[in-house]
Amino acid sequence: MHRILVVDDEEAIRKNIERLLSLEGYEVATAPNGQHGLVIARSMLPDIVITDINMPAMDGFAMLDALRHHPELERCIVIMLTAADERDSMRRGMRLGADDYLTKPFRREELLDSIHSQLKKLDRHNRDKEHAVARATALSEEKTREFSVSNLRPQVTLIQIFRTSASPA
Description:
Elements: E1 3-7, H1 11-23, E2 27-31, H2 34-44, E3 48-52, H3 60-68, E4 77-82, H4 87-96, E5 100-103, H5 108-166
Parallel strand pairs: 1-2, 1-3, 3-4, 4-5
């Protein structure tokens, strides 16, 4: 089950998103601002963080920056939400490493589509990583076998030479 953290200072929006995602089968936690969200993220290690931009205590940009600089959270998916349809705000979020950006009010389908497409990317990345590890493991095992065999050959040759020279003529 994928874990999602919803961070928004507007309680009604936070609760609506939480309810929607819970009904979709996600494990959901919520926070009223970036500061609380970061504390929860460090313990929860969410797959996705959905965060508002304009919040008290710590805004969404500062939270995103903190997530990207935390070793266990730097790869989590971040979807940013804002009431402002401003290109500068969107570009700033993307520069900081946001994975997607939705403008409020958004439709249920928009949010779910964003989550599903980001999770597909994550699954593809994880599969690619698993294949790379499997290939590296197979190559390592092959090289270990080659090394073992090449180290046995000189020993066999020395034993054969010893037997040949030690045998009576």
